[in-house]
Amino acid sequence: MAELSLACLALYTVTSLVVGFRLIARSYHSRGVPELLIGLTYAASSGIGYPLTVTATAWSSRGATLGAMAIGEALIVLGCGCFLLFNAKVFRPTARWSVPVALLGSLVLAACGGWVVAEFFATDDVALVTERTRLGTILFLAVLVLGQGWTAFEGMRHYRMMRRRLALGLAEPVVTNRFLLWGISGLVSLTWNGVVNAYLLAGANINLHPVPVFAVSFGGLVTAGCLVLTFMPPAWYVRWIQRDRTARALATA
Prior knowledge:
Number of domains: 1
Number of helices: 9
CATH topology: Rhopdopsin 7-helix transmembrane proteins
Distance between the termini: 51 Å
């Protein structure tokens, strides 16, 4: 299980880095804020931050461990904060509550991340750090779960609306499919965080136990795949979506 978890973590990391940096590059040329926010989410949090925190205790010196943990937690907070702001800016751009809610969630994430780093600097006993920061980790994951639930809800809500428009010829099949993929990514994220929370409440070290690491890595890999198909779908996938839509239209004509 440990070897499989590490393999999934490696694949998830590489996929997140590729997708994240490509979206950041795209935002540089398009000046698009959504591309920048979601690119930072995957490059900073999933591509660099999470692997650093998982492997921090394996470093040979305490200084390296503390540096990896501090940088990793900072990047995770940055990425997750960008994720919340992405939901606010893309799905609720005119709602007065969306950005303040996203910023409040980001502040909670930052406080929880700072708590973890402070405890690592206070002691080199990983088990003690895990116990002392259990409440903060639960709170961090609760905010993240709420954000992922927001993603799933908005993705599926917009997908239903786009399907109605698609039936009237007022929407593109590829764009409609993107909302479905975004909703699926939110549901998958909810699932893996449920596994992590279960092990956390059971007293396990979620950064060292292979099951939660595998759940995050495999679930994240599926999510990253959805992200690739959403923002940079290969030509064969676009043709398949368009061909499937054409076939359905002919069948119902």
